[in-house]
Amino acid sequence: MSTGVCKGEQRPLNADTSGAEVRSSALDLLQQTRERLESGLARPDIDQDEIVHQTRVDMKRLRALWYLAEPGLKEKQMLHDATRRIAKALSGQRDHAVMQTTCQSLPVDLPDAFQKQLDAGLLDHTRPAAHPEQPLAEVSPLLYALECKVMDADFEGLRQCHLKTGFLKVATKGEKLSRKALQRADQEALHRWRKWVKVWMYQHLWLVPGTDFVWSERLKPLGSALGRIHDLDVLDGILQQLDQPESLDTLNALQYAIQQERNRLLGQVTTEATVIYAKPAKKRVKKVFCAWSKD
Length: 295
Prior knowledge:
mainly alpha; 11 helices; 76% helix; CHAD domain-containing protein; CHAD_dom; CHAD_dom_sf
């Protein structure tokens, strides 16, 4: 079903890329973000949660670009900070929607009294989420500030060798974090790994979208599975904080369902990681840049 909200599209970088082109591609994505945001502010009937989600995705795409360009980018911290502010301003509403969806996806019927208690717990955890229109209005000046920073940043010294170094750094980091996360399987380690899986996925899209490397096809399902595990862990934490739950049987059923789903997903991410990290980071990066240079 269409939500009437357009997804952002990354304009891939050319192999003979210059700093000016990196800036131009970033501004192109920001223009899409602004048009979506303005539509949401002008038309409350458009799916507000989806606007929030797609705007946060755009910020992840941009941060992946900053990490890619980081070795040759002087104002990298300024750009990261400005991008992060936008995502943070929308986090409450997005987190609330995700927690509701996660809870509804579990095969447990919730009595009305327990549902009301859980809804209150979700709201406390994800404030400010009560007024969907406020985060969008707050983001508008932050988006303008980011656009200005991208315009003012010095991209002139950026070269292909810097992008290759940035790409290798993220690939190596993701591989190291995968080993720690799969060994420990705790919330923090899995969440950190997920972040760098997403960064590397979006970096592929800046460089070689549509190129079907065995590992690149697995990045999206891996990121989705890790995201689902994180959502389940957060929901479990909220359940543990409920004061005198209305139904212990319902609480136990939810926690059991969470654990079963988490175990299934851990099996999936282990399989995906085996494929993605079968070859060392340097070999994967070399293949990507060979393909990029031929385009």
